[in-house]
Amino acid sequence: MRDWMRSVPTMIVRGKGPYLFDIHGKKYLDGNSSIWTNIHGHRHPHLDRALQKQIRKLAHCSSLGLANEPASILARELIDRTPKSLKKVFYSDDGSTAIEAALKMVHQAHVHRKEKRGAFLGLEDGYHGDTIGAMSVGGSRGFHGVYKELMFRTEKVPAPYCYRCPYNRAKPQRADARTYAKCNLECVSLLEKKFKKARRPFAGAVIEPLIQGAAGMIAHPKGYLKRFAALCRAHGVPLIADEVMTGFGRTGTLFACEQEKVSPDLMCLAKGLTGGYMPLAATLTSQKIFDAFLGDYAERKTFFHGHSYSGNPLGCAVAMASLETFDREKTLKRVSRRGAELETMLQAFWENPHVGDVRRVGLVAGVELVRDWKTRKAYDWKERVGGRVCEEAKKWGVLTRPIGNVIVIMPPLCVTKEQLQMICDVLRKSVRRVCGG
Ligand SMILES: *Cc1c(COP(=O)(O)O)cnc(C)c1O
């Protein structure tokens, strides 16, 4: 807080496409999509219009005992576009609340069915939000260590983090660690063991499919998600896919689960749901979970969870416009082209000996900075290397935030090849200025 109090904040006043403008008129490329929320760019005409149209009808009404038009239309659309297992939509406000609702729903469904269950299972270093339940199933020691007395007990397995995996016997190379790892997929055997050893089936299992965002852009080895899902299925454990970051085209498909043909029992959506316009979240569930709540008034099977702004009509209207934009602009096709271009651009990072790993899924990439690539020796966190690189990049007109010493590249999906090149060039220059090399 002392650093913040001493600093002069950058006051953002305006946006256009992938750009943000500060109060002095300085232009920045929004290299992390305003913390992973923005999808089609700022001030997109179709999204702007949808909001204007809706606000002339209704800004908000409660979802307690009422339906509203945009929320119902959007729910139908979400069910049509997500894996077939998902049949019902529950609205809240943010990623954390989408997770919170999923955990409570799964727990309560077990209670209603009189099933005795164990704890929830999650990945070490997982990040699912900052509320108590989301923190509990996450494993972010850095962010959440101080709150550990407040959290409930969960089970954890190591994240499949090839670059720093203790079972990876390969010497570091100048390539994405997933491509040259030497191991027996111990991440999967540990997971199998965890399921087998559990005295009771887990209450549920939470995973960010394909790539863990706030854990440091940990891209999983191919097939991990599919095996995780298969184990859940075999043991009757509800699978909760946290697609808060990976959803809405970031990984190349509309949802990351599609890439390994996984049909989760619950899916949490937020961040990109409204194209980055409004806070809105959704927890999607299977018919089976939904049915566990069907009862007469006296049975007390109500899901006692509701937020004042659940199903906000403005948020739902703009979310619908964002989904339409995927069709109108063939956004996913462009992401696939841009992703391939980004892959080529990322190669230039290897020239710097302080780059230890570069990993990309779709239009999401992480560049892990290290003191020495030959030993994978990390920088001390107190050196704040990632933060300093991003401060340098800001001077050159590129905004992004690091996760520790991992630099995040996650532009809005409307980014052009030239803009993407500029993001990479500025970040490479900034790494050189801060780390040398
Ligand atoms: C950001 C994030 C959350 C939390 O979402 P908020 O809207 O910030 O509460 C949960 N899960 C993942 C994977 C996220 O990236």
Name the helicity range. Answer: 25-40%
CATH superfamily of the largest domain: Type I PLP-dependent aspartate aminotransferase-like (Major domain)
CATH topology label of the largest domain: Aspartate Aminotransferase, domain 2
Radius of gyration over C-alpha positions, nearest whole angstrom: 22 Å
What CATH architecture of the largest domain would you give?
A: 3-Layer(aba) Sandwich
Number of domains: 2
Q: How many strands, which pairing sense, and closed or not: the largest β-sheet?
A: 7 strands, mixed
Distance between the termini: 32 Å
What's the rounded overall pLDDT mean? Answer: 97
The tally of beta strands, per DSSP, is 17
Tally of alpha and pi helices: 15
Q: Name the poorly predicted regions.
A: none
Q: Tell me the name of the CATH class of the largest domain.
A: Alpha Beta
Strand content: 15-25%
Strands in their spatial order, largest beta sheet: 4-12-11-10-7-5-6
SS-derived structural category: alpha/beta
What is bound: which ligands?
pyridoxal-5'-phosphate
User: What is the molecular shape?
Assistant: globular
Description of the molecule:
The protein is an alpha/beta fold. The chain folds into 2 domains: 2-30 and 330-435, Aspartate Aminotransferase, domain 1 (Alpha-Beta Complex), CATH 3.90.1150.10; 50-328, 3-Layer(aba) Sandwich (Aspartate Aminotransferase, domain 2), CATH 3.40.640.10. The protein is built from 15 helices and 17 strands. Strands 4-12-11-10-7-5-6 form a 7-stranded mixed β-sheet, with helices on both faces. A 4-stranded mixed β-sheet has the order 1-2-3-15. The protein has a 4-stranded antiparallel β-sheet with strand order 13-14-17-16. Strand 13 (355-361) and strand 14 form a beta hairpin. Helix 9 (186-197) runs parallel beside helix 10. The longest helix has 19 residues, at 417-435. The mean pLDDT is 97. The chain binds pyridoxal-5'-phosphate.
